[in-house]
Write a structure and sequence with these properties.
Number of helices: 10
Shape: globular
Largest sheet: 6 strands, mixed
Distance between the termini: 21 Å
Order of helices and strands: HEEHEHEEEHEHEHEHEEEHEHEEEEHE
Structural class: alpha/beta
Helix content: 25-40%
Length: about 375
């Protein structure tokens, strides 16, 4: 499928960000705006097909960027059965990191688990950085510098993104450094700051509140993709996750169901949502985010109501969810460790305000941090077919 700018792009206004006043909100990505999981996967699969055609004979390590590209990277890894891991802003005990930053981001620190990069340095022929959008490319150039310094001559590099807004100078840098580019839609950003500036930011801002407690249902078979895995292993784990969830909820066709993820935890949300769609439900998916985006009452603006929440992952961290509505059922999925009480209570409050009262919270947390070795069940891994 060929995507046009009007299919994907909406321009929003960043809150109190002097480095870049606008944010591209992708209406089919399943992050800030609620979307049918099937439509999100259709978009991601189009990018997967582009990458698959290019690298039939290479072993790939795909790296998805937190927060917004974690589901895209995971979906590509599942489709290509490549090695996969994501960047993260969370802490993992007893590992070493490679640190880098995103200059324009509200939460700039990003890191990769160094131990896993070293484990794959001789197994992967190429690293493909997976993003929702690439503009300057500076963040990726920086991590490439770090990898080339630490592992000289070990890897080749590519960038795969839904949107590419690089100017000619950035494209020339990629060519000079032999970094290959793949994308679905080319964008030009000159007009975006002016579009963002036009909006008043006069939407509804709902402060955090307490919504009581509900049972957190613990699920087995967790794979933490902040550590390396394979597309085959992750696909298998997500299928088992769906089986567990289906056993613990009444799935009735024709219900409206919202499936919510938490921050970096996005792909299993879309996967579970896609299964619910196959059962005949009308499903929307999106997730909480650390991005404070201005909201507006204007009809042409993508986001109208902002709910401020407590993070599931860290006390005192602000997170947000946009444009909630009333659904017959709500499923919340998280991989946050520790006590979920504050985060869950604030999210329940937001849902109660919208009239949602049939809510289940599932934590996918019981499993191995890094279950993969050189292969899974004898299956060759990390190579596109």
């Amino acid at each position: 499928m060929v995507y046009k700018e009007s299919d994907l792009i909406r321009i929003a206004k960043r809150e109190n960000n002097k480095k870049r006043n606008y944010l591209i909100v992708n209406r089919l990505q399943g992050k800030h705006m609620p979307v049918s999981p099937g439509k999100a996967f259709e978009l991601f699969d189009a990018l997967a097909d582009v990458v698959k055609r290019e690298y039939k004979e290479e072993r790939l390590l795909l790296i998805g960027f937190a927060e917004t590209a974690t589901a895209i990277g995971a979906r590509l890894a599942v489709r290509l059965d490549s090695f996969y891991m994501q960047t993260t802003r969370e802490e993992i005990p007893e590992v070493r990191y490679l640190y880098f930053t995103e200059d324009h981001s509200h939460a700039s620190e990003q890191k990769l688990v160094r131990d896993d990069i070293e484990a794959l340095a001789d197994q992967a022929d190429r690293i493909v950085f997976v993003e929702d959008e690439v503009t300057t490319g500076n963040t990726i150039f920086h991590i490439i510098d770090i990898l080339e310094k630490n592992y000289p001559g070990k890897m080749r590099f590519s960038i795969a993104s839904l949107l590419n807004g690089m100017d000619d100078a950035a494209v020339e840098i990629c060519a000079a450094r032999n970094v290959r580019l793949h994308y679905l839609l080319k964008t030009r950003h000159e007009k975006y700051p002016g579009i963002a500036q036009m909006y008043a930011g006069d939407g509804s801002y709902i402060p955090p509140g307490e919504g009581g407690r509900t049972e957190v249902i613990e699920l087995d078979g967790y794979i933490n993709v902040r550590r390396w895995t394979t597309g085959y292993a992750y696909k298998t784990a997500c299928e088992k996750l769906w089986v567990q969830i289906k056993e613990k909820m009444e799935v009735c066709p024709d219900q409206t169901i919202l499936v919510i993820g938490t921050e970096e935890f996005m792909y299993p949300v879309l996967d579970v949502g896609a299964h619910l769609e196959e059962c005949g439900c009308t499903v929307k998916c999106h997730s909480t985010t650390r991005s404070p985006i201005a909201v507006s009452r204007e009809s042409g603006y993508p986001l109208h109501r902002r709910y401020e929440l407590e993070s599931f992952y860290q006390d005192g961290r602000r997170t947000f969810l946009y444009d909630l509505e009333k659904y017959d059922r709500v499923v919340i999925l998280t991989d946050a460790a520790g006590n979920l009480e504050k985060g869950a209570s604030s999210l329940l409050n937001a849902l109660f305000l919208c009239g949602c009262d049939r809510i289940q919270i599932f934590r996918w947390g019981k499993g191995k941090e890094n279950p993969c070795v050189s292969g899974v069940n004898g299956k060759d891994t990390g190579r596109t077919e």
